[in-house]
Design a protein that fits this description.
Strand order of the largest sheet: 6-5-7-8
Largest sheet: 4 strands, antiparallel
Number of helices: 12
Strand content: 25-35%
Distance between the termini: 19 Å
Shape: elongated
Length: 451
């Protein structure tokens, strides 16, 4: 229940910010072009708050937080007095109308740059995209990727963290291959090509990396003891720092997780441990202690394992100065725009399944999870959605900004507007297509969360 409320709140805040900026783009340019704005609304339906400004515009919040609108004076829908005719939208030149409509998506791109600028100014705590285990006979293994390799670039995308790797790989869906730049442990860089012709990736069940045979790097945890707690069951049994636990009750121990699981499940029991100390094998009996855990009483010995040293600079704060952050924010926004256009193209060609379309539930979950992870992660998610909203609104469907822009371009070429009858037919078709996409996206959400 708490997750639902949190996700809903994050969704409302996220969508509210995106819509407010999008509509403000239309509003600001309309005012600069001399058009009278009657209503600026964030949300649809009945107003839950409204105020009329000194400029005569009614500012309001609608009860349905799934969009917004800017209502401008327009002779096609309003009775306009002769002295106000020059203030109507339809009386403006095609260039001004084009600028007013295009300003909405452009505002979303500007918002993305600003958000990413702030994010890189604050700094993003992250880890380098270093490869862990590589599955045998996988796409990654056939490309000769090795444990410890750092992914530096995926296609044209700079890969400074795993999120960037994800973006690069997602943009490669449907391609025959993708080229990676990787840096080995000794610092040498090389190019490796992943053959994607047989790549089977289902976003419903697979992770992007896992489907390629790549695990995110995790340091090896050895069964050698790095520390034995004072006055612990392990200390009382005579275990020492440097001991390597080889067997438990006669069973070979292959990893630390296996050992800890046996200990957790054996509270108050005696375990026969086969250890290697200074190269000599010994047998030690240890009485497992008891302590309260989240699921009841669990066992413990009071030992800590030796772990593999992390690569140099593995954990870092990705941060830039004022100028560098702005440049990086603009570059990242451009990358997101290119990837968004590529993904739409691949949806149309069938290279990407329509199952990848996300509806409001998926967006709400993404907003909630990113907000829960921290402010900078929420900013990253906000920028991604802002770019996608801008790109989608530029699609040449009549009910979207892109459809209006298409009509204006035809008007500019022909020297006269598209007829009202043709526009009406196009609007009906566009509305049907948008509605079908919405139904498909919501259906995907229902399948994801209900089954």
């Amino acid at each position: 229940m708490f997750d639902f409320i949190g996700y809903a709140a994050a969704f409302a805040v996220t969508l509210g910010i995106l819509v407010a900026f999008h509509e403000f783009g239309h509003f600001w340019v309309a005012r600069r072009c001399g058009v009278k704005v009657i209503t600026y609304s964030v949300g649809f339906g009945k107003a839950i708050w409204s105020r009329t400004g000194k400029d005569g515009t009614e500012y309001q919040l609608g009860v349905i937080p799934l969009g917004g609108y800017v209502r401008m004076l327009d002779e096609r829908v309003d009775e306009v007095a002769e002295h106000e005719r020059h203030l109507s939208f339809n009386a403006q030149s095609v260039y001004k109308r084009f600028a007013i409509v295009a300003a909405g998506p452009i505002a979303n791109f500007v918002l993305a740059v600003a958000v990413l600028w702030l994010m890189f100014g604050i700094g993003v705590p992250t880890v380098k995209p270093i490869i862990g285990e590589v599955a045998a006979d996988s796409i990654a293994s056939r490309a000769n990727l090795q444990r410890g390799d750092e992914i530096v670039q995926v296609g044209n995308i700079e890969a400074y963290d795993w999120q960037q790797v994800q973006l690069g790989l997602m943009s490669a869906i449907g391609n025959e291959d993708v080229t990676l730049v990787v840096r080995s442990r000794n610092g040498n860089e090389r190019m490796q090509t992943l053959d994607l012709s047989d790549w089977q990736f289902d976003p419903e069940t697979d992770s992007t990396f896992g489907s390629l045979g790549i695990d995110v790097y995790q340091p090896h945890v050895y069964t050698e003891l790095a520390e034995v707690m004072d006055d612990s069951p392990a200390a009382e049994a005579g275990l020492q720092q440097g001991d390597v636990i080889e067997t438990v009750n006669g069973e070979a121990v292959t990893n630390w997780q296996q050992l800890t699981e046996v200990i957790r499940q054996s509270p108050g029991q005696m375990l026969a441990l086969g250890i290697s100390r200074n190269g000599n094998l010994q047998q030690i009996s240890a009485l497992v202690g008891e302590q309260e855990g989240a699921s009841g009483v669990i066992g413990y010995l009071g030992i800590m394992p030796k772990t593999e040293a992390l690569p140099e600079g593995y954990v870092f704060n990705h941060q830039y100065g004022i100028v560098g952050g702005l440049v990086k924010g603009a570059q990242q926004t451009w990358d997101l725009m290119v990837i968004s256009v590529q993904m739409i193209g691949k949806l149309l060609t069938g290279d990407v399944s329509v199952k990848n379309l996300a509806g409001p539930l998926s967006i709400a979950e993404g907003a909630g999870v990113s907000a829960g992870n921290g402010f900078v992660y929420f900013l990253s998610f906000l920028a991604l959605l802002s770019v996608n909203l801008g790109i989608i609104n530029l699609l040449p469907l009549p009910v979207l900004d892109g459809g209006h822009l298409a009509f204006f371009m035809v008007e500019w070429v022909r020297g006269k507007p598209v007829s009202e009858k043709v526009q009406d037919v196009c609007y009906r078709i566009g509305a049907a297509l948008v509605f079908a996409l919405m139904v498909l996206a919501i259906s995907n959400d229902i399948v994801r969360y209900a089954f």
